[in-house]
Amino acid sequence: MDPSKKVQTSKALSWLLRHGAVQECLQIGSDGFVSIEQILQHQRFRGKCTLKDIEDIVRTDKKTRFALRTNKETGKLEIRANQGHSITDLNGLELEPVRSSAELPNGWVVHGTYHSVLPNIRLQGLSRMSRVHIHLSPHEPGDHRVISGLRHNVQVLIYVDVDKAILGGISFFKSANDVILSEGNSSGFIEPKYFLKIKDRRTGENLL
């Protein structure tokens, strides 16, 4: 598979597993897994890629967006997205609860964003928007341990006080590829009162 087609296939796979499985009438488990058989028969993939292509996409994905397994009951090969879902009712994603900042390498988590949306974030907080979770990282951009959860071109870094947020009823979880996930409060927000600082990534200025 040539590089451009590989990127297109990876994006289509991400969309299907994170957002489109239900509306595309695929059987998806509560743990987010879908059989490869269904994927290869789907109109977006039928005749356009093979099992080998999908295995290569999973193996070479630098952000480890996907996971493969053989279903112990059916013997079928299955795939899922590790995080980023907007599909609800997925309660078996194997997310590890984060109970305190002591379980994090730096004691905080950080969310990357852009100056254009910062005014809204200052007022309302971080929003999960159409997804199930808000995505955060236990490391800053540029750290070699960042696999996923932070875009490389973010302009603003928002650091969250995990312990204070947990005391306020906010839950945090760690995904299989080391992304920290939170549903936020009942409205889907991590409110500004839980921010430790807001840093301009280029200048280092604290914007809080």
UniProtKB/TrEMBL annotation:
The keyword Transferase applies. Its EC number is 2.7.1.160. Keywords: NAD, Transferase. One of its GO terms (molecular function) is tRNA 2'-phosphotransferase activity. Coiled coil: none annotated. The keyword Ribosomal protein does not apply. GO terms for biological process: tRNA splicing, via endonucleolytic cleavage and ligation. It catalyses: 2'-phospho-[ligated tRNA] + NAD(+) = mature tRNA + ADP-alpha-D-ribose 1'',2''-cyclic phosphate + nicotinamide. PANTHER family: PUTATIVE PHOSPHOTRANSFERASE, TRNA 2'-PHOSPHOTRANSFERASE 1. Belongs to the KptA/TPT1 family. Catalyzes the last step of tRNA splicing, the transfer of the splice junction 2'-phosphate from ligated tRNA to NAD to produce ADP-ribose 1''-2'' cyclic phosphate. This is 2'-phosphotransferase.
